[in-house]
Design brief:
Layout: H1 3-22, H2 26-32, H3 37-46, H4 64-98, H5 101-113, E1 118-121, E2 137-141, E3 144-155, E4 162-168, E5 180-186, E6 191-196, E7 207-218, H6 230-266, E8 268-269, E9 272-273, H7 278-306, H8 312-337, H9 348-360, H10 365-379
The protein binds flavin-adenine dinucleotide.
Flavin-adenine dinucleotide binds next to β1, β3, α9 and α10.
Length: 382
């Protein structure tokens, strides 16, 4: 089968799953903030937890361009669902890119099947953007490390069992990033989930605070086997994370547009569908243009990633534009829908609650602008 044929087959399977097993239940799961166990089982059988894990380690080995299309489709139906495999795959990507051969053989097949699921544990109560300020410490103790500290806002924290955990192995190192290390941390004694965090949107998926108290982790779980590369390994995964979030932004922006195009032809005021009022037409045109532009930027970043090029600027631009597009389109969709946009019986209010997260996660949009600007100057020296 050629790569385009394979992509078509996979996207068709994803569309069928979304149509049959997700769409009819979104409102129910969203408003009950219920974890979608059955959908997770179906995502396992679709192979989504291994979509970009190399075939030799049990995954599908899909290019990130195809993966971004999957994320866009899933997010257009229910963004929360994408969060269950997105940060899981960023953890897997850190192992694929930087792990030892033993780590790859031990973990990647189980990540790919979804037998072990998890995510990224970087953020702490005192820092998110400035990850060099983390306070979680891992001290060497023979052939293991003892970890103490707190992580917060960790997606899949309750239902996941393994996390790429960023710690300080040398809290006094200068520059600070040289004291960081990234471990694969499986739940066990000393690793507890202290609470589920309540939030505005992104319902159904668990966000949790994790506490480590003399949690013993084998030295062989240090990703790459050498201390001091934690931040580099974590941020290497975030390039993929940014493409991922950009694709979510495209999905949410598109869902807000599609619902609005439909509604504007159904709803009549002053004797004609509101789609025939110029004020609404202007909104629809801007919304559609944002979706197209966001999709192109996301595809360009994914293509650069697949070619193995440095793509932090491209991924940053895609993330920035697509997530702001999701925010603007969800607000415009709410205006177009009038009171129904405010109703929990429609999806618009969910897009409106979900979109702001996209502007915060995987590096805030303020940070993206700074990174884009730095790269611009670095790539164009005089
Ligand atoms: C629902 C949800 C899920 C999440 N999932 C995860 C997860 O799975 N794993 C994980 O590790 N984290 C996760 N996070 C945390 C997320 O990554 C952080 O919230 C994010 O990185 C921002 O960090 P912060 O909240 O500490 O904000 P801060 O870093 O405190 O930033 C506050 C404000 O200051 C701005 N700012 C900071 N530094 C600068 C600067 N140098 N220049 C200009 N402006 C600046 C920021 O842009 C922001 O506007 C999640 C968060 C949420 C809400």
């Amino acid at each position: 089968m050629t790569a385009p044929e394979l992509e078509t087959q996979i996207l068709d399977a994803v569309d069928k799953f979304l149509e049959r097993d997700v769409k009819p239940y979104v409102l129910e799961f969203e408003h009950a903030d219920r974890y979608p166990e059955e959908m997770v089982e179906k995502m396992k059988s679709l192979g989504l937890f291994g979509s970009i894990i190399p075939e030799q380690y049990g995954g599908m080995g899909l290019p990130v361009t195809t993966y971004a299309k999957i994320v866009e489709r899933v997010s257009a139906v229910w963004m929360s669902l994408s969060g269950i495999f997105n940060s899981h795959l960023i953890m897997a990507a850190a192992v694929t890119r930087f792990g030892t051969e033993d780590q790859k053989r031990k973990y990647l097949p189980k990540f790919a099947s979804g037998e072990i699921r998890g995510g990224l544990a970087l953020t702490e109560p005192n820092c998110g953007t400035d990850l060099q300020a983390i306070r979680t410490v891992a001290r060497r103790d023979g052939d293991r490390y003892l970890v103490n500290g707190t992580k917060t806002w960790i997606s899949n924290g309750i239902h996941g069992s393994c996390f790429a955990l960023l710690v300080k192995t040398d809290p006094t190192a200068e520059p600070r990033h040289k004291g960081t290390s990234l471990f694969l941390a499986e739940k066990g004694p000393g690793f507890t989930v202290s609470r589920k965090l309540e939030k505005l949107g992104y319902k159904g998926i668990d966000s949790a605070e994790l506490i480590f108290e003399d949690y013993a982790i084998p030295a062989e779980n240090l990703i790459g086997g050498k201390e001091g590369f934690g931040l580099r390994h974590a941020l290497g995964g975030l390039e993929l994370g940014r493409i991922n979030v950009a694709a979510r932004g495209v999905g949410v922006a598109m869902a807000a547009l599609d619902d609005s195009v439909r509604y504007a032809q159904q709803r009549e005021t002053f004797g004609k569908p509101i789609a025939q009022h110029q004020a609404i037409q202007l909104k629809l045109a801007d919304m559609a243009t944002r979706v197209e532009a966001a999709r192109h930027l996301t595809r360009a970043a994914a293509e650069a990633y697949d070619r193995g090029e440095r793509c932090d600027m491209e991924a940053g631009m895609a993330k920035l534009f697509a997530t702001e597009a999701a925010l603007e389109n969800s607000a415009e969709a709410m205006r177009i829908h009038g009171a129904y946009g405010y109703s929990k019986e429609f999806h618009i209010e969910r897009y409106y609650r979900d979109a702001p997260l996209l502007c915060i996660g995987e590096g805030t949009n303020e940070l993206q602008r700074i990174l884009i600007s730095r790269q611009l100057v670095a790539r164009n020296p005089i």
